Every structure is written in structure tokens, then in C-alpha cells.
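User: Um, any thoughts?
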Amino acid sequence: MQAFILPFNTEAITLDQAGGKGMNLARTALGGFPVPPGFILTTAAYRTFTDANRIDAVIQARTHSVDVEDPISLESASEAIRRAFEAGSVPPELESALLKAYRELSERTGGAPVAVRSSATAEDLAGASFAGQQDTYLNIRGEAALLDSVKRCWSSLWTARAMAYRARQNISPETVALAVVVQQMVPAESAGILFTANPVSGNRGEILINSSWGLGEAIVGSLVVPDNIVVDKASGRTKSLTVADKTVMTVRTGNGTQEQPVPAYKRKQQTLNKHQVTELARLGAAIERYYEAPQDIEWCFAGGHFYIVQVRPITTLQEEAVTWEAPGEGKWLHGGGTFEMITEPISPLFETFLLPIFVDTILQMLDDIGLKDAIPAVPYRIINGHIYLHLDLHLQPWHLPAVLRDFALHLNSMQDQNSEQALYRQAVADLSRRPVKELDLVALLARMDSLGRAGMRYWLQIMKIVQVIYRQEQAFTRFYNRHLRRPGVPEPEIFLRGQKIKPWEAECSMFELAQLARKLKLDRVLTESPEMLLDGPDDILTVCEWHQALDAHLDRFGHQLSSFDPLLPTLADDPRPALAAIQAYLSGKESPYERQRRMEAERQEAIADAEKGLSPRLGREFHRVLETAQQAARTREDALFDVGLAWTPMRRLAIELGHQLAEKNIIGQPNDIFWLRLDEIRSAFAGPNLLIPLVKARQAQNQTWSRSSAPYLLPVGTHPAFWWKWIFPTPELNRQPDAHTLAGLGVSPGKVTAVARVIHSLDEMQRLNAGEILVTRTTTPAWTPLFARISGLVTDLGGPLAHGSIVAREYGIPAVMGVGNATQSIRDGETITVDGAAGRVFVN
């Protein structure tokens, strides 16, 4: 049987048990803040009462027939439901538990009166506060009064205003329940509300305090104009103070409260002195740090002490403009601009788990070649959730031999790439043998660490050869431009296209799945959305032969990454892009086999034409640089294809940790694990803490950061040093020749005019229609299947070395990358022209 009573110091109290107010108060008390003692009468008590008195039938009948837009209908339904609560009797076992807890609280507080507060499961949430929708009863004395107040709290879940509010928030009546907070009543001399961010201006650096005499109900009920105090959060200094004419205050009576006039001498007197304001602001700032999000706090002051009686997220805070400032001296480059795999704000788990592994690995690599002392001790900072890398290397003359020696080694490392891939595959296979269900916390984290290190090490092996690859492709282009370029000849990229690389093999596999779907007459595969294919009726996915073929495809190719951050799934965990490609082939998209044969024929024809104008010596040189460039392109893309091998098992290990925490009601669902820091995961298992509000606050903050476009370089407006451009060829961002032209790097030739579809993440992929131009921040391997649907590509980030540039060339899709501001400058749905040879995008 579920517990009816939970003391405030109970660990891992959930929203479903305690409602929003109770859950937040319990967590605040566990954080060591001054919360008056009390307990929570759980939602199990509410459900026991409604079951015993058969009230659910009344609720169902009246809520299903109510018209939420008709006040009379709402009031009628509310009255009927509340009468059923008033007529109900509290079951003996429930009454006994409640009165026992009340007597124990009375002993602790010397018989002090209590406040009885409603705490609904749909209340005090990050998305909606539901403030004032249920009732509170103050200054309650005696067991009979307590039982009556509890019943009235329960019934207040069904006031007309609460029913209408839930309807507007699309919350089903069947899903709500109500807990009750019973808490020592503080004889407040003054009370009020504190916002840890200014809800009027949206300024996160300001604390706003409203204060009045007596209990806080006069402010909550808008019966009085309170004192208004604005405090600088960082310094605690009062920035502004408005002392109001406070005419009314709420005071205690024999058994309850009432409004009384404020004595004349106190009406215009300041309710909090300077030191009290500083102390209260410091307390509010500490609570905000504890929750990691701005909070709306009800407080009271009595006997020289402040008390916290309610905490909830601020839900009406204006979105403050995100500011982008360099975190120190020198220049700072967005992480997505260097290795293209992390372009969005990162999760706390990535920041505290994988990012340190990556930094350790790169520092070890630099140490191996004698360059560790050339970079700062901490070469990165997290700014508004984004990774920025420090560009000011402290290169000295004695570093040059090490750089040249390592560059020479890179030439040989291309030959070793197959063995590196084999080692990586074997390491992942070895670490994936034992089922995750058999692993405890220590083993799960240890395996995640090993997989992360294997993945990051392999990634750096690719980065070691990427510059050599680019230089070899450049060498071929220079030879072509010098000896073969003339009017009417094709672009040099035609000589590198149509190769049988791993992405092409994956594409062929998706094409075969489309043919199998056609053979099995799965017509709905042609018409349903990817979400319906995954979650729809059994007549699709239980077709054994096709479903097994899809699973086999994902086993072989599903390790394609959306991001280094495991918050974002690989194709194995979210195969919607693959399903979209299958649909494209069912709709008549050219098969990858035909495209490869066509491109190979075009390549051979171009080679034959090129040879005609060359001397024997230049002909031999032409074949040498061409073969080297072709091998370089194959090596890079085949190597990149396998980067994500460690991520699918690593992500599933993390989700297993999430399952274990969710079962303990520490987090709401397994995927919430990515919103916790590594130390919080360890401490949650050692001694459970309620982390649901923390998760919700971090998710909300991440969404705010995601809506702001992160600058490529900090300070804003600067450009990388010449040596950085040589190492990582990148465009100069925000270059706009005119109001209708955007400039970037042409990475795949050709010209196309079509509708632009601005997509910020794979979650929006269902908006991308066949034949449209994809406009996005950048693409990663998990986006590859979408190339079967598009006619062109434009990105903010990336250049000739980017994954998307090689895939676009293989698909024969015109592409311009590194535009910088394409996702802001191009409107979703407008017609644009992409000139992949010139590196220009024309907005029609």
C-alpha cells in the first residue's frame, strides 16, 4: 500500500506522490533551507478517499459533459463534484494516519496552528504554475478543523477556475490528483513574494521582492499594494525601493484569518530594513542556485528569521536576450566549427563525462608530439551551453620540428586507417558483450568511460589525417586548374564522385529495403510518415521479413551520429531519417546503383578527355594526383562513417542508468539521465535526491540557448589567425555581397532553384519534402539518409572537409557551406537558388 504520510525530510518524493507544491517544499527542506516543519498527505490519500466514496464516477460524468467555454456549465459541474467531496467520509485507516502525523507535528511545535495547503500533481511546474487554482487554509487548530480543511482542499481541485485552467493546458481530468501540505503556521510580522529574476524586465541579474505587513495572503490575493524592492543579485545591493501605502493586512484570528486595516503609523513604513533585504536576497539567490533556474518564492519573517513557505519555477519570465562574450583573453572558436559534431547546446552529462575524456585525449595526443605546453591548461569554455575552444596557441620556434615530424607521420597514418578501424570495432564489440541489465552502477559507468575513450581516440586518429586528405584533394585541384582548366570542361569534383564508399553501401541497403517493401506490397510505407511507420499499426512493422531486414540494416549502419552528445540518438535508436530515404526511393528517386554507374561513366569520360591534351609525363602525373585524391576521399569518408560505433552502446548504457533512477522516482523518465551531471548520478545512487525539478529547469534553459544563434567566433566580429585557417579551412562568416546574395564555400558544384526548408534538428525532418533545398546549421552522419530527398544543401557551418560536402558531391547535389547566417537570412518556404560552384546562394 502506498504511504499516506510523507515527512518533509523524505528523500526522492515524486510529483505523483506529493503534487508540485509538496514536492518543491520537500526538496527545499532537504536542501537545508528554512522551511517550517510539516508533512505531506499524499495523493494516495486523495485516491483512497475518492475510491471509498465513489467520487470518480461523479467526476467522470460531470467533466465529460462540461463546456469549458461556458461559465455556467463549469460552475454547475464544480458544485456537483464539490458536494460529493463534502458528503464523503474519511476512511478510518486514512484518518488514523493523518491524525497521528498531526499530533507528532503539534508536539514538535508546541501546539502551533497549521497551514493546510493544496498541492496538485498539475501545479508549480516549469511549464505552468497553476498558481491560486486550489485552496489554502491558514491558522487551523484542532483535529476536526484539520479534517474539514483537508476535505475542502481535496474538493478545491474541482473549482470552476481550476477545471478551466487545466482544460486550457490540455490536461486530462483523469490524470490529476491532489496532495495536501500540512505545515506549521508561522506568525508572520511581514511576508511576501520574491522572484529570483525580474519578471517585469526579464533581467536575470535582478531579484524582485514584494513585501507587506502580516501574512502573505494579502499580496497573493492582490488586496494590497506591497513594497517593491529590486536587488542586484551579484552584489546584494538594493537598486530601487518603492515604499507603498499598505492599507490592508491579513492577520490570524482564533481559528482562521481575516483582513484588517494597517495601523496608520505603519502604512507608509518600510516592511524590511536594509540588512533584512540583503539577507532575504541572499537566501533567494541560494535557492535559485540549488534549483538551477529562476524561482518564485513565498516567504515570511517572524522572530528575526525568514521562512520559506512555497517555491515554484517562474513560468512567466520574459526571455532574456542571450549575450555572447569571450570568457577570457584571445579568440574563441565555436566547437561546431572545428569538428562539426557538436553544434547545439550540450547536455550536463556530456559536459561532465565525455567532454573531459575528449580533452584528456587531445592533451595526450599533443603531449605525444611535444606540443602540450603550446595550449592553455583548459583549452575550452562552456558559454550558454556551447563549447568554445581557445585559439591562441603559444607556439614557439622549438615546436616547429615536432609539427613537421607529426605531419610526416600523418602521411603514413592513411595506410594504417584500416587497422585503426579494425581495432576500434573490436574494442566496441568487446565492450558490448555483457548485457547491460547485468551491470551495476560502477560497471555501467566504467563501460561508458571505456567506450567514450575508444570513440574519442578513434576520432582524433581521423583528425590527424584530415589535413593530409584535404591537401591531397587540393593538389589535384591545383593540377587540374593549371593544366586542364578551359571553357566548357567539367568541375574537378567530377573526378572524385561516384566512388563505392560506406555511405553509398548504406544507401544501397535502404534502396533494397524500399524494393522489399514494394515486393511485399506494403503500400502504407509509401504514404505514412516516419513516425507512423515506427509507432503505427501492427500490419506494417510485424511484417516479419521486412522488419527483420530493417533491423539488419540498423545493426550494420545504425551507428551514424547526430552529435557527440549522447543526448541525441544515433540512427539505431531513431531510424526516422532512414525511413524517409526508403520512402524517397519508393517515390521514384534514382537508385544509388544507377547514380553510381552514371557518375562512374561521367568520370571515365572526363578522364579520357583530360588525357587527350596531356603529354606522357603530365599524363602520368595526372593519374598519380587523381588516384591519391580519390583514395584520400574514400579514406576520410569510410573512416568518418565508423566514428559513431561506440555511441549506440554508450547511449544505451546511460539509458539503463536512467531506468534505475526512474524506478526510484529520482527522475521522471530514463532519458532524463542526460540532464544530470556525473557527480549527481553517483550521489543519487548513494543517497537518493529528488531531481525532477532540476531536470525540468535544465531542459528549459537548454531550449532558451538553442533558440539563440551561437557566434562562430568570440569576440564577435573577429577572424581566426592565418595559421588556423590553414589548419581548419573555414569561411569568413556573414559575408553578403548584396541584400539578395549569401556567400559561403562552394563544396559541390551545380545549380538548383527550389523551395528552401530551414531545419534546425532531425526532430523537424518530417517538414522536409522531396526536392526541397535543405538549409541547416550543419549536417552530421545521421543526416545522410535525408540527402536522398533533397535537391540542394546550404549550411551555416562547415567547409570542404565537412561530412556534408563529400556526401553532397556523391549525391550530385549542389551545396554551399559555411554561409554563417543562412538559417537566419533565409525564410522557411521561400524559393532560393544554390550555385555550388560559385559558393553563392541567391534569395529570389
Remarks:
- The chain has four domains: 1-185, 332-484+644-706, 493-616, 722-843.
- Residues 213 and 586 are 72 Å apart (CA to CA).
